[in-house]
Structures are given as C-alpha cells and as structure tokens.
Amino acid sequence: MTVYSYKATDKSGKFIEGDIDAPDYHAAVEQIRQLNYFPVKVAEGKNTAKLSAGLKLSLSRMGSAVSTKDLMTLTLQLATLVDSGLTLDDGLSTLVKLAENEKIRSILVDIRKRVHAGTSFADALAEHPAVFSKLYINMVRAGEAGGMVGEALSSLARFLEKSVELKNNIRSAMIYPAILMLVGGVVVIVLITFVVPQFAKLFEDMGAALPLPTQVLLGLSALITDYWPILILVTLGSVGTFKFYTNTDKGLLWWDGLLLRLPLFGPLIRKIEVSRFSLTMSTLLKSGVPVLEAMGIVQSILINRVISDAVGNVKQALKRGKGLSGPIQEAGVFPPMAVQMITVGETSGALDTMLARVAHTYDKEVEQAIKQLISLIEPLMILLIALVIGFIVASMLLAIIGANDIAF
Q1: 11-15, 23-27, 106-110, 152-156 — which one is most confidently predicted on average?
Q2: What CATH number is given for 174-408 in this structure?
Q3: Model-level pTM greater than 0.85?
Q4: Would you list the domain boundaries of the chain?
Q5: Is 267 left (phi over 0), alpha (psi -120 to 50) or beta?
Q6: Is residue 315 helix, strand or coil?
Q7: Largest CA distance in the chain
Q8: pLDDT tens digits for 15-66?
Q9: How many Cβ atoms from other residues are within 10 Å of residue 21's Cβ?
Q10: Separation CA 239–CA 242 (nearest Å)
Q11: Would the CATH topology of 66-158 be identical to that of 174-408?
Q12: What's the CATH fold of domain 66-158?
C-alpha cells in the first residue's frame, strides 16, 4: 500500500486535506470519491500542503509563456475536477483559486468568464491560440459535442505527458555529450590560441624546417589568432544565411529531407514523427473528431516538412474516397511495420486502437534508438577530441624531435 496525500472539496465547496492508503493512484481517487469528496490534487507521499502553506498548481513562475508541462498539469487538474462531478464552470473557478502563476490565472479567469457567459469551452480556449493548440481546441470541441469533456481532457493530459516525457528523455540523454563537447572544444581552443603560438616563436628562433603537420597547425593557429573577428563574422553570416534559407519553403523541404537521409538521425526522426502522428490520430479519433479533420490537425503539428507534406497528400487521397492505409503506403515515409499495423486497424474497424498501439510501439523504439544513438555519440566524440588533441601534440613533438636531430 502507498500513502497518498490529497486535497479535495466537499459538496459545499470547502477544501479538505488528508492522507489515504491505496495500492495505486486510481484506487486512491476512487476511495476519495467514496468519501463524497471531489479530489482536486492527489500525490504520492506525505501531505505536503501544510508545509507549503496551501496547495497550488505547480506552474512555473518564470516568464510569461506557458510550457507544455504547465499545460499538462492544468489539463490533468481540470480533468480530475470534471470527472469528480464538478461542472466545468466550477472546475475553472477552482483552478483560478489554485493557480499561482499570474499568466495562468489571467487566462483561466478569461476562459471562465467566457464559459460563464455562455461561450463554448472550445471557443473560449481558441481566444488564446498562443497557449492552446489546434489539437487541444479541436479535441475539447469534439468532447463537448459528445458530452465527454472530462474524457477529452484526460486524453489530452496523457498526450501532453508523453510529449513532456519524450522531451525530457532527449534532453537528459544529451547532457553528457553536450558537456563533453564543451570541455573538449575549450581545450582545443586554448591549445590553438595560447599554447601553439608559444611553440611557434620557439620554432622560429630555431630556424629549422618544420614538418608538414606542424606547418598546418601553425597556419591554423595564426589564422584563428590574427583573424578571429573576421572568422566570427563569417560564422554568424553563414548561420544567418542558413537560417534564412531554411525558413523558406524550399529550404525547409531540402533540410528536412536531408535529415531523413542521415544514417543515425534519419531513422530516429522518422520514428518520432510516426509516434506523434499515430498518438495524435488515435486521440482525435477516440474523441470523435472526423478523420479528415484529424488529418489536417495532425499535419499541422508534425515537425518534419517532408512527412507533413506526405500526410497532406494522404488527406487529399482521403477526400477522393481512398482509404487510409493505401495512401500512407504510397507516401513512402512511414516504416513498413507502421503501415501494416494501420492496414490491420482499418480493415478490422479498430483504427483508433491500432494507432494507439503503433504509437506505443514506436515510443519504445524511439527510447531505445535514443539510447543507442547516445551510446554511439559519446565514444565518437571522445575519439574525435582525442584525434584533434593528438594531432596538436604530435605536430609539436615532430617539430621538436626534428629540431633536436639537427642540433645533434
């Protein structure tokens, strides 16, 4: 059994705090409901609300933007309140009281005001497009149409949780390689800009003929130390030109196509996009969004332009009366296993369920691919840094040995 701390409201709206023993989270929520309470927050561990002088939403205080994690927390809280029996109006009012972030509070106040005045929840969310995406709004709209707002919010919370988890996995996996690259780069720059010039003066005084590797190294060092402002300007100009070009339709299509052809990163990007496509389509279809509308929403959230355009072509094929699996196979950007699973789901009439399985399968493959990629990147970076430093040291030693031979 696990101890869960909770904060809930009774039928009169009074807040109640306490601890409860339960085997898992869902059982804890059910026990709280059996006490005729409406659970607002349920968390594993001892009751921390008293220590924090009142429970509040764990939303970031930094900046005015609403992060994906903040939105996930907000959505999960509202889904819990609505599933507990509170009306949407009352649930929003409760979140306004709990929100400690001024940006979040102002958004919730505006949404609650619009809903209270008779505006649909989805239309109220649409007034804040910088916070709520088309996917979010359309899923809520479908939930409202089917009388399943709570289920739609729960699906959104799970979707956002997976997005946060994927970002965190990638971010945490890249910490060590980034530190390694930074340290190695600093070491190389110090050697070339400070150490090598000292040896250059020594070799010049000796007047001996230098080996080719030493000449290359001294030339590179002189180029960096004498012309570093120009090199910085050229680098900034190149980066700016690249960004400008990749912001165009033609440039973005070229760059995304190049990424898909890379040996290590291409398959990983493809799996990430297939997982995002499958999970989003499954969530939208389960929420009652029509398949054509769902395809349009999915196309807008895919990052890779090549795959996004392929999904657009599939959408056009659907408009012409074709099925989903055939055009997806013809698109040529989805892995064969994903195409086969989608075909089975479409044939059996359980497309949303099969898409969820596809998403789960490729979530696992993405996680494994990231681990494999990091396991390859780390030794490759160490080898690259070792080769660069080894070249510098060897070039210096060759010149010193050559000068000593002449002196002898």
Answers
A1: 106-110
A2: 1.20.81.30
A3: no
A4: 1-49, 66-158, 174-408
A5: alpha
A6: helix
A7: 99
A8: 677 777 777 676 777 777 777 776 766 776 544 333 333 333 433 333 445 7
A9: 11
A10: 5
A11: yes
A12: Receptor-associated Protein (1.20.81)
